[in-house]
Each structure stands twice: as structure tokens, then as C-alpha cells.
Design a protein that fits this description.
By secondary structure, the protein is α+β, with helices and mostly antiparallel strands. It has a single domain, classed as Aminopeptidase, CATH 3.40.630.30. It is 36% helix and 21% strand. It contains four helices and five strands, in the order E-H-H-E-E-E-H-E-H. The chain has a five-stranded mixed beta sheet with strand order 1-2-3-4-5, with helices on both faces. Strand 4, helix 3 and strand 5 form a beta-alpha-beta unit.
């Protein structure tokens, strides 16, 4: 297994991985709000990759036998004009996607991908890494916790 920067020849694999991730999120969504829209497979990877290109980001993929078995995407967005009013605004990288195919999960691939993205963020002079994690995705919460991440913001929801 090797970790490389994204290449277009892996686009279909990336689409499959993102669908696998969304299906997992749907399976743990206790509110039943997530969905796999008919256009998700076609459009989501392209939207994510566009975000990576436009926001000084990277997409790394874990490849084995010429097939992508995992991916991580991260961006370094600029702050909005008035963010400084209530925030110190340290430079930060944001992990937008991280998925390893279920068949090879728990073999350290996710950690290697996360480490690679952290290296890029450090090289880019980021002070922090942010990762939004779906509250019901306990597997991911535990993974990030083991890698020294902790919650900073919590979103509450109530059906009315």
C-alpha cells in the first residue's frame, strides 16, 4: 500500500469510497436526515476536488494493486472579512473527507492518511487541524480521539 496525491485515473474509486462513506453515515443517522441523492455519486467527488483545488488543499489516496482503498481531502480556507472580531484566527487546515474502504479498515491506513494530511498542513504553516465528525459516527469519533483530536464545537438539533 502506498499513499499518493490524487490522480484522475482514480476518480471512479474516489466516487465509490465517498458513496461507501455516505452509506455508512446514513446507516448510523438516528435522525434519518442524511440521504444518498441520485446525483451524489456523479457530483460529490467533483465538488470535493474543486474545493481542494480552490482552497489550497490536497487529496491523498491510499492505493493497493492500482486501486484506491482510502482517501483524505483537506483544505486551507481563508477567513471571512470579520471573523477576527470574535476569534484569534490561527491558520488552520480542515479535513473535509476521510474514508477507508470497509474491507481493509483497522489496518492503520486511516492513520497514515491523516498523518500525511497533517504533514501537508504543517508544511503550509497551519497551527490547527479541524475535522467535523457526524455525532452518531462513534467509530470515527473514537478514531480521532485516539489521534489526539477533541471536540471544540457541538451542534444541537431538535425536531419541532
Amino acid at each position: 500500500m502506498q499513499i499518493i496525491e490524487y490522480e484522475d485515473k482514480y476518480l471512479e474509486d474516489i466516487r465509490n469510497l465517498l458513496v461507501e462513506l455516505e452509506e455508512h453515515i446514513i446507516s448510523v443517522d438516528k435522525d434519518n436526515l442524511d440521504q444518498l441523492h441520485s446525483e451524489y455519486r456523479e457530483k460529490m467527488a467533483l465538488l470535493d476536488l474543486k474545493d481542494v483545488r480552490e482552497k489550497n488543499g490536497k487529496c491523498y489516496i491510499a492505493v493497493e494493486n492500482d486501486k484506491a482503498i482510502g482517501l483524505i481531502m483537506g483544505i486551507i480556507p481563508k477567513y471571512e472579512e470579520f471573523d477576527y472580531l470574535d476569534y484569534r484566527c490561527p491558520k488552520r487546515g480542515i479535513v473535509t473527507e476521510l474514508v477507508v474502504t470497509k474491507k481493509v479498515r483497522s489496518n492503520g491506513i486511516g492513520m497514515k492518511l491523516l498523518s500525511k494530511m497533517e504533514e501537508y498542513f504543517k508544511y503550509s504553516k497551519c497551527e490547527y487541524v479541524l475535522i467535523d465528525v457526524f455525532a452518531y459516527n462513534e467509530e470515527a469519533i473514537n478514531f480521532y480521539s485516539k489521534n489526539s483530536y477533541h471536540p471544540r464545537m457541538i451542534t444541537n438539533i431538535k425536531k419541532i
